[in-house]
Here is the input.
Amino acid sequence: MKSSSPLFAYGRSQQKSELARCRNHDLLKDPHLTLTSLGFRDLPLTLSHARLGGLLSHPHKDPFDRMLAAQALLESLTLVSVDTVFDDFAVARLW
Here is the structure.
């Protein structure tokens, strides 16, 4: 989508400069090492997650979203997503 608004142009230039800064960033070189050093941890998919994901009563049928919601609920985690569909799952959501 093209736009001549200054705000759009500013947003695009910000995206480009952030991308340029990230090209040599450790996150791109070794994402697992970088994220674990920041305190992130792997969250394997368990049978309990799969079971709850299948049992969640909601018209939203995307299995990946249902699995994320189930993991967040069972592990008492906050899900970082702009997608408001998670609000209907009663998941704690940031963003």
